């Protein structure tokens, strides 16, 4: 919605990419549509194959399109999950034994895998926030509609959760927050810190990210009503799979 | 903080990039430090110049490093602004005539340029949200410490703000929200929708973004106490310049 002044010396592959981008952003091409291929662009614009390829790679690098081997370049499928920052973590929800993820996916099937639960020495920042040198760590990956969308690593002060359901694979109805509640440490306040960056290589692999797709990094700290930090959760989200929503008052 | 398994067939440039990345993420190299150059990498690892260049370009593409012409590759400076979603827009603030940006920058000097104020026919989505076919549009760019960090485009229902200070360059103390308040339409609730993606070309130019830097896109709608939408603000943020913070209760 910003203005897009195109200087006259723009190279031809850029101008073709600009035209295709316009068509994608305006909805002329829709999610999953096949874009004109190299041959079509060559014929239409009288250009070399390398130029046509360059034009398409601009859109791929911007994350607007994905190549499928041997079949062409397609408008990136984007059916994002709406992650509602404040509403999804209401006590009413996990207090009733509901999984937080049911709120995000609204009926779309999701799975959790790559689960790892370990007792570890905390990294400096985590140790500082949780005021605990030893932590229990829950690592897992979430997939929706069969596609990996999020990596999450939760850290808990070791002394707080030792021997409880928080460190078991199946945490029971309402998950870890309900269990922290059972222990008298129910989360009451949350702080989320949010960044975006390009993925590191292992994130690209685990989230199966196409080129040109950044990740959203959310670091959430959960505090009890007394202000005691009981969890740090570092989440890595495929940015193409998410819209994050936060509501607040003036 | 995720695990990073490196398969044995990893090419040499990847392994060198992995080592440099580790050194950056662990703090061994700090913001603004010069990374080992092509010659140093060639000597250290017994590799060709092209391989050394490839290793460095991995880090540049991930946004962890920036090349400076003729002088080498440096760890990306990152002194982010903390944008506090809920606190910065409190009525107490703009009601006292304070600029919202004073909250974000905490004394660091900021400037606004590229200001454009126009009356326009609204795009479909904006028209739908504001329930108004005609809108006044305020476009501007914010820079902090002389570096552009954010593009913002605010839309107001034309009938609501016609002939008021909202459509003047200088909106006075407290800015547009204070002026909407004067008109009896003070914002009371906000919804922010947040995405990350790679920048479009004009955003790369206006925000002077190095390669491998995604943007955060925030679409905020302001509602009066009666639920009347009075502004849509679409913000494009340099992701390397921002940490967004949201606080909320369980």
TrEMBL record, chains A, B:
Membrane spanning residue stretches: none
SUPFAM superfamilies: Chorismate lyase-like, Winged helix' DNA-binding domain
Sequence ranges assigned to domain HTH gntR-type in this UniProt record: 10-78
Organism: Planobispora rosea
Single Gene Ontology BP annotation: negative regulation of DNA-templated transcription
Lineage of source species: Bacteria, Bacillati, Actinomycetota, Actinomycetes, Streptosporangiales
Gene Ontology MF term list: DNA binding; DNA-binding transcription factor activity
Alphabetical UniProt keywords: DNA-binding, Transcription, Transcription regulation
Keyword Transcription: yes
PANTHER family in UniProt: GNTR-FAMILY TRANSCRIPTIONAL REGULATOR (PTHR44846:SF17), MANNOSYL-D-GLYCERATE TRANSPORT/METABOLISM SYSTEM REPRESSOR MNGR-RELATED (PTHR44846)
Superkingdom of this protein's organism: Bacteria
Protein's recorded name: GntR family transcriptional regulator
Keyword DNA-binding appears in the UniProt entry: yes
